[in-house]
Amino acid sequence: MLDKFTPEFSPSGRTCGSAALTQSPTEGNPPAALSHRPHQQLPNQRWQIYPQKTELAQQMAQTTSLSPLINQLLINRGIETPEQAQVFLNSGNLILPSPLEDFPDLGMSLELLHNAIAPSATPEAIASQEKIAICGDYDADGMTSTALLLRSLRWLGAQVDYAIPSRMHEGYGINKRIVEEFHSEGVGLILTVDNGISAFEPIERARELGLKVIITDHHDIPQQLPPAHAILNPKLIRESSPYRGIAGVGVAYILAVSLAQKLGQANDDILTSMLELFTLGTIADLAPLTGVNRHWVKSGLQHLPKSKLPGVRALIQMSGVNLNGGQADKQDKGTKSTGKQGGRQGDKSIPNSKSLKPEDIGFRLGPRINAIGRIADPQIIIELLTTDDMGIALEKAMQCEAINRQRQEMCEEIEKQAREIVEIEYLPSLQQDRVLVIVKSDWHHGVIGIVASRLVERYGVPVFIGTYEDEEQIRGSARGIPEFHVFDALEYSQDLLGKFGGHKAAGGFSLPSQNLEALRSRLSEFANQCLEPQHLKPLLKIDTSAKLNQIHHQFYQQLNVLEPCGIDNPDPVFWTSNVRVTEQQIVGKGHIKLTITQTIDDSEYKIKAIAWRWREYFPLPPRLDIAYKLRENHFNGNTTIELELLGVRLPTQSHIFFAAQSAPLRTTFEYNQQHYTCGIYKNGSVPELRIGNLEGKILAVPLGHSIGLLGSSRQQAIQVDVSQPQYNQIFQTALQALSELSNEY
After folding, report:
1. How many CA atoms lie within 13 A of 725 on its CB side?
2. In this structure, which of 84, 96, 258, 499 has its CB flanked by the most CB atoms within 10 Å?
3. Rounded alpha-carbon distances, angstroms, from residue 98 to 107, 258, 326, 569, 743
4. What is the per-residue pLDDT for 742?
């Protein structure tokens, strides 16, 4: 029975009194005292497990010759028939339509470039060649696009130069200064890459000056297209085209290959070098690895380890990419090519390697390229990727390495400062605000977007982060969560902003500093319209469950049929329930290395695991549900399969219930320096977890449910959601206490 104590509630929803059964809203951070389990803090996540279609997976297994577990992964990616599976599994045999059929302006672009180059003309004609200038961008997509076209156009005999606007002083895209500078240098044809689709005024100025303009871009189409001679953008072609998902470097690749073919100079060397640069840029820009991207990237990854491009070879060597086909340890987190941090350097040159993996680019090569565009001169990358001199390439790659380390240090320091601001000023009201707006002077604008991504991962809410350009102007970056549309939020606040742009997941903005508090209020208003409390946890999407005896080399090799994995074709994520943590230690820069054990049919199975940057969760509880990816570890000539932990939670409540059926489960624990009792009781046919304090107040929650009753009796109790921060920590603490007790039975 619930009896003896009627709670009083403060306006914030927290219970008044010294023995309250709620916590202040600081979920994800350790309580002031938690003597029962001092390591009770765990990642603050919500797990979303795909619906399991076991029967369909079994049926598909008969035609694919893959295990039902692999077929469940295919089903999760929208592949539900044997025909669809064959198309996906045999993407290397994809038959593509001619780009000339899908890009209306490609023919005109080729004609303009052909006329400018005149490759086999008379000496007089060659002397009259038009000078071509490329305007690129400072991210990995823009820089690889620029390098790809520079290398290919020079190969084809063009007079070509390039310019990239300053991230800090000019911002994204071609501008009038660049146009007028090109004109003064005698340029006759401007070619934009990864930008230009929204640059109406600069392109209009180019036309006034008599320049020809080809725009190659992949960003969203504005209401008014610029007056270019030709525009190549996959957003302008039919939606069913296999080319719809290409990044800016994909457009550049199509243009360069088509031009080489038109001029009869499409030999293997130039085509392979262009494919390698396409692969680097596509993965680093987080383009979807489906359709034509999957088709080309799969081939490009096989060429990269044996690349003839000095810049690619130097970058691979300096970044420590593991060339034996295993997964590289992750060193970066929150970059545009986002991933986890890791420690050791992989083997630097292993002959006869078959292929890189997308994560080798995403976690190793991409961040080093992006770091240059964020805090240094993009010319370093252009020279790296266009030089034929290995000495110059190694010099530039060493610069990339040093600048990337500097970028990492900057990110760590800014993240530390941002977290301090959040913990002190905004965390108590985060559930009400549902968005973080953080601004501080002296932060580097080139890396605050990375920090925003890390804060989203930590706090589970959209993050708008900015820094002062001067006393009157703020410039910032935004990152969202699945239920929040960043660009719509910026539009909702446009009267408070200067420039802004972006898409669903990310954006950039500027605003007068006096509008900061108004912006914070406006964004919170928008967030409260589209976000529910349950959305305010980082989302972890999980494919299917697996037992440790299913994880072995043969299964890992079968997973290769999904490669290349990336955006829209993610690495498979598995989960295993109620495992034991038998060993754990801190290694490197705050990673947890551990041994996971599971008993199946009286046999014990063990596997090593790593949790990147989880120092704050150490030590982990002895019993857990775990979510993870699989990785190969190569050490001393041995190859083993390990788990890369992505999430953990206390064991599922069914485990506790089954133990309670064989023996009563009642125990005590301490939380925030208060004593509590807890146990599993029957309420009709439903088992119920009850937590009581010394004053007789009880929280009763049916197992498997998130809504419970809080009060002194059922008649007077109120309904509460135990997934909310003020209840969740004590609820999880009670579950952990009972879980440990149940392990003794």
Report:
1. 26
2. 258
3. 11, 9, 35, 25, 63
4. 65
The third-level CATH classification (topology) of the domain covering 99-272 is: inorganic pyrophosphatase (n-terminal core) (3.90.1640)
Q: How do strand 574-587 and strand 591-600 relate by DSSP bridges?
A: antiparallel
The size of the chain, in residues, is 745
CATH 2.40.50.460 in the chain is located at: 43-90+538-649
Fold observed for domain 43-90+538-649 = OB fold (Dihydrolipoamide Acetyltransferase, E2P) (2.40.50)
For the chain (745 residues), the mean pLDDT of every run of 10, in chain order, is: 32 34 37 36 85 90 90 93 86 81 96 80 55 92 95 93 83 89 95 93 96 93 92 94 93 96 91 95 88 91 93 90 52 39 33 66 86 89 95 95 93 95 90 93 91 92 93 92 93 92 86 95 95 85 93 91 89 92 92 94 93 91 92 84 93 66 80 88 82 91 81 88 75 79 60
CA distance 499 to 475: 9
Query: Six-digit token pair at 66?
Result: 């893959």
Query: Which pLDDT value is given to residue 542?
Result: 94
37, 599, 676, 738, 745 from 658: Cα distances, Å: 23, 16, 23, 12, 10
Measure the CA–CA gap between 454 and 417, rounded to whole angstroms: 13
pLDDT at position 324: 54
pLDDT of residue 323: 61
Residue ranges matching CATH 3.10.310.30 in the chain: 434-515
Q: Give pLDDT, residue 582.
A: 93
d(CA 313, CA 306): 8
Second-level CATH architecture of 434-515: Roll (3.10)
Measured CA to CA, the distance from residue 651 to residue 649 in angstroms comes to 6
Alpha-carbon distances of 178 from 65, 130, 163, 190, 194, rounded to whole Å:
57, 18, 7, 10, 15
Distance CA 419, CA 9 (A): 30
Number of H helices and E strands in the chain, helices first, is 24, 24
What's the half-sphere exposure (Cβ side, CA atoms, 13 Å) at 411? 26
> What span, in angstroms and rounded, lies between the C-alpha atoms of 405 and 350?
25
Q: How many CB atoms sit inside 10 A of residue 3's CB?
A: 13
Q: Residues 6 or more apart from 5 whose CB is under 8 A from it?
A: 693, 695, 696, 697, 711, 712
